Amino acid sequence: MFSFIQNHRIIPTIQSGLFSEPIIKAIINNIYQFLIKFILPTCLILGFIIISLDYGLKTLKLSKTFTIPIENITSVASYNYVIVLPISSIFTGDTNNSSESPTLLLDGATQLNKPHSLHSDISTKGFGRYSHFHKHLYFSTYDGTDPRTNGRQISVKLFYVVHPLIAKLGKIFIMVAFGLFLLLYINNQSAHIILKWKKLQQYLFAPVIYKLSKTDTKQGIHVGPIHIQHIHLTMILLFGCGLFLLPLINAWMLFPIKPTNDVLYGAMGGLIPWVDAGFYYEEANRLLETGQLDYFGTRRPLNAILFALRLWATKGNFEFALIIQALLCGLSVSVLASLISKYFGRFAAILTIVPIFAFGMNYIPITLSESLGLTLGCFAFILLWNGILEKKLFLAVAGIFMLTVALNARAGAFFVLPLLVVWMGRAFSSPSQKYHWRALGLSILALALALGFNVLLTALYGKPNVMPHANFAHTLFGLASGGKGWTHALEVYAKEFDSLKEGFAPILFTKSLELIIKTPFIFIEALLKNGSEAVTYLFSFSKIDPSDSNAIAILRKLFLILFIFGICKIKKHYKTNKNIFELILIGLIGSLLSACFIWNDGGLRSFAVSVPFFAAAFGIIISLINKPLSPTLENKTPHHWEGSLAVTISGILIVFSIFGPLIIQQDKHRLQEPQLSPTSTMIKIRNISKTPYLTISNDSEKSLGIPALTRMIDQDSFIKLNPYWSDTLPIFLELLDPKKFKQPITIGAVYDLASQAMIYVVGPRSIFESKQEYTELQAKPMVSSHKENFFASKVFVVQAKD
Fold first, then answer.
1. I want to staple 595 with a disulfide (CB 3.0 to 4.6 A). Which of 205, 443, 534, 777 is the partner?
2. How many CB atoms lie within 10 A of CB 108?
3. Least confident range of 175-179, 368-372, 523-527
């Protein structure tokens, strides 16, 4: 140790004592060097190897199939049979804490589709339920017969995976490495790493800087701060846009990284829009073809309008429209990170991106309004930040306008708006004027104009007599009934809803108010319960969702501890940066107040617009740990390109959303509509090759490449993603039955010009590969034993016209 101390010029003397300051510093220095040079890289490398191996095996799906002899099958209960599987150490099953076994069970030629079932359900309900638990496989046949006497062969397909304990160890290694890096960063021991990175940047970008500066001296290339700023700007924008393309790639590669239920429920096979995501796709196509939205799109028209414009710009290409959505979201987050990095440093900017990306990755691959709400919310936050810090009332008022527009695109934390409007007079006050009334008046005007903008879109392109945000009537009635959820109104007023449809919302609002006046304490109790559940979700140290992995739970605990510690340190920074802290605090308070109304029905996704407030609080507060006091932010040299860019992009989106559909309708090419066939069995589709479709291959061993590029997915993967669509699973099993449909089948979401509705067509792949602008197909509704199923009514079996 003492040789190391001498090398680092920390040389204690005998007079300094055993526990003198130089020796203590030397010991700490040795510990930090040991952590940096050995522990951190070792954990990082081991963790990377284990996680890469884990995801690699899951992606490649290497497997081995075993045929089970009848004598190895033992009866446990009426429907329950058990098999002791071979090589249990390699092919791991579920445990008490994990249900991730990919094992597939074949009953004859039929693949069973109910894995991870409870053993009690297997015994009492049977019919295809099974569970691979440790080295045992508990199962029931699909028809309830005895597998030992029904004459069918039982086969088990076991997949090679990394043992769960080893996989968990890999995640722990990564978290330890991350925690060490965070610890070293906070204690300013990794400054030399950052310095080396800055020098590396200068070497890598020296040719670019040379061309920009056109300065070549005897001392080398001149690197001015302006040129470095340009390079950093380019890197930030490219990084942000590239980062938000990753969720698309993950979905289009069949989720090597486990997705949330929202993604699976909104995109069949990672691509085809379904449920609410399908409705937005339908509304966008309807706007392109007819110039009008239906009920679903009229409630909040902006998302459907902008998605229609992206489809028009890409000539109907669904994937390209999603890519534009991802790039726009990444751009907004990049600009926000750049703004925060100028005032609080890059570490704060990186920490701000983390929660935004964690939220956005769930909605980037689908057509729901959360992505647009997050994008507009980021731009609004940028305008508010720049306007307040630079004392530019126009930018701040523009921020309130865009925040209102964002909340009309994706309804959520509306309570933020009145709080911001009232606070604006305080934010622009001065020693001579304690409250800035002009700021208050302009903020109210901006809010009114944004609401008027939404009304204008509804009047231009919406369906008449449809109330904006009509679905909130269902939420309010559920709250008034004691927190029974939005579906409670459909149970109580089923007949009225069926007869009135679009006109039901005003009546339901009236019924809700009457109920609130009659039983106010029940309503208040429901509000408090909603609010407490939201707070518990945000600040829980345990798993907040059953689908969360242990790694996510541990990361939440780590970040929450740092966040709480940062709050304790915020007091000394408050006076110097008062306005920005108050802006963030208002966003948080407004969101929590809104959670009392919308948490039960909307959950976290309802706060897409206010996520930037939470993310900024998270990034800035943690970065303030062990950070010296800085001068007030208002005294810093203004860097307002972020605000200018936010105003420009926001303005373009506003103008395009008003006039874009009108321009589309004037497109001469679209006026040349084909004559529709008089028969009801004919459907007509525009640019069918650019619609979202997938071929479901019955060859699970075949390498199908990237599904989004090959448009192919194997049956095993398709069914594995299907448990989240419990209502549609019976329909898919019928589609995959070779006795009913010739395999492989291709399924796609298309907009039928004849019926002016989106349908799901099933047929040979060749019909989707047609390059013609219009495709006419002979169609017939799917004959299903589940006629009451909504999806069944939307499926049409087609054949190409001769």
1. 534
2. 15
3. 175-179
